[in-house]
Q: What sequence folds into this?
């Protein structure tokens, strides 16, 4: 039986990957995570400090990418949207 606290991605969830520059420590990652999770429609975010990448999970592909870009930039980091 799986725990209710386990984060599981379903086929109905979509994600987009972004590169964030200037995010080089755990506190930076937490700052970015909190900023992005405040956006309505964001279900989860996974951060890779090694390559400076964030994966933003949403229930659909309809989330406005500019909201993510703005949240990260407002948190003090630069972001490169997916192509």
A:
């Amino acid at each position: 039986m799986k725990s209710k606290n386990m984060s599981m991605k379903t086929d109905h969830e979509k994600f987009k990957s972004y590169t964030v520059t200037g995010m080089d420590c755990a506190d930076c990652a937490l700052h970015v995570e909190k900023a992005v999770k405040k956006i309505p429609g964001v279900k989860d975010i996974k951060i890779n400090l090694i390559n400076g990448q964030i994966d933003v999970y949403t229930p659909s592909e309809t989330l406005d990418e500019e909201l993510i870009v703005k949240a990260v930039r407002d948190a003090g980091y630069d972001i490169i949207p997916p192509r």
